[in-house]
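Regression test attached.
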Amino acid sequence: MQPEGYDMSERIIDKNESTAVTRPIGRWVDIVGVVLATVAVAASAFHFWPFAQSKAWQMLCPSNLAVLAGSGIVAPFFLLRRTRRKVAQLLPHASVFAYLGVAVLSIAFAASAARAVAFTAKLVLMLIGGYALLNAAIANTRRLRTIYAVTAAAAFTSVACAVLARFVFGSDGFGFFDNAYKYGTYVGILTPLCSGYLFASGRVWARLLAAFLLIGAAVSSGSLGALATITAGMAAFAVFSGWSAKLCVAGCLVCGVGLVVLFHSNPAFDSLKQDVRLAEKDRVNLKQRYIEWQAEINLLLKLSLSGTGAGCINDERSSFYGRLPKLNTLAAFDQNGWLATAAETGILGLVCFCWVVSYYGRSAWRQIRQAGADASNPAGRFALANFAGLVAACVANLFSSVHYNGILLVFVLLLVLISRTGRLFGDIRCASESC
Amino acid sequence: MSRPTITCRQSRRKVEHALRVLSLCLAAAAIILASGLCLYSKSPTRIERPVLLVLAALFVMPAFKSELLMLLQKLTAFYLVCATVSELSGAYIAFPFSSINIKVSYSVLILLLCATGYLIARISPRDVSRAGERGGLLSGWVLAFVFIAAHMIVLWAFLKMFYGYGYQHNLSVLGGLCRYLLLFVFLNERLSELRFRQCVGLLLVLCFAVMQMKA
């Protein structure tokens, strides 16, 4: 019997997503895969530190290198007939391939071929190579827990460094991140994911850690997007969790926002205060966010199918501001991931990206329903955390983009966690009842 | 089985076959018209590398066993058809009456042909096939529509509230989204058929090759 809510029509193209536990390609490949996946996730906390300005380092930072090496190791096994099926099991859902296909086709319309090809290559590397590597690494429940622990450690490192940098050393940066939007996207997605996982465990020490992470992330965030993302993700978690977890989340959010309000005169909160404001002080100039949104919609009006080409939005964006008064204080990364995807890869690109989100979103939703809102069993714990993470990623994409170099890995990790939780706890209700 | 029953079934099959062929012909005619007009229209979108589209059209033609590859072929074919239709968005055909000059976009004509083919195909019950990805893609389409509409509303409200003027543009973006959605609904089943896809692929190879030579 199929699980409730299972869409029969999806099974036709869903052979990669079988509920069976994937068999490793080989013992050594398996070990190397686990090490590389751990390095990729852990190194994402350091972003582009210490050579943030170097373009070469941005492309070949440890997390990207780990994914590249992992893809290089796995790819030859796909060519061998004997192991092809095993590798195919590690690949993402068809919607991801559809999105990548549209991104490749959009290169035909891009003014700068080099930029479009580089961006698409990065997408392919992360969405297929990164997905396969992380998927291979999480072969069983123990490894799923390990990856969660590594992810939580990465989130802790980022938040702790940002708190120290901003409030102890008085720096303008955000620890290893030099940009409020990138930091907000990274921490905004990982905080609900990891805090949710820790809160749902029910242990006192885990809840204390989750509280520290949540309050620290809220206090150190320098953008409206980060605050909104964390709040939305934790709210999604609280809705489906028990009363004790609900109270913990509410208490932490109140503490975090209360601290921001209490110490609002501290210069560390200047960027947040400026970003939270809905209009500029002079009421003449527009907030950069509205200008960007309008430009991206205007762009979609003219280049509805083709877009500007993957990764090429910055080449054409400024031509579509129209008559809007602008501040000429173009804030880097102050974009909207949904509209940027549409503007770059056209309407079909946005549709395919929405298909990706809706496919994995439905999967996460199904897992929560099957777990019966019981966070005490492992399946429910993972399902709740994954759902909170996905909601956070969708909100983060409104204020920033999950496609940024260094952030995309986190989005891919989220997709893998959802897929893997579904596979490992194929019949969650049965697993929770120990039958 | 009695002879009249067999004859009746055979004649029904013939009718179904004729309807199927007619619907395929109409869809093919729409695509031929779109690519023909596309070559003569002053294209609003600059295709920088038509050779990539030629390669994509070639990819559409082979018969693969993998379902994933077949899905990608279908999506690629749909993208390429949309690319030709999008070139016609600024081109209109005029019907001058006594005092009113009615202008209809060429893309509406293409849509009408596809819609007729689709409706004819629906008459035949054998042709009603639902591909697996259709539901997923449609949900993606709905989400995309909701996202864009929500952004327009928020933008309009904020600009009105804080700056006294609303959203600058009309709702053509949503119109474009609906146009491609309709095209997807009308062509989805047709593009699942290998022979049709091969014909479309060949046609598009020629179209984009000419475009490449003109460039």
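Expected vs. actual: identical. Residues 16-271+334-432 of chain A form one domain.
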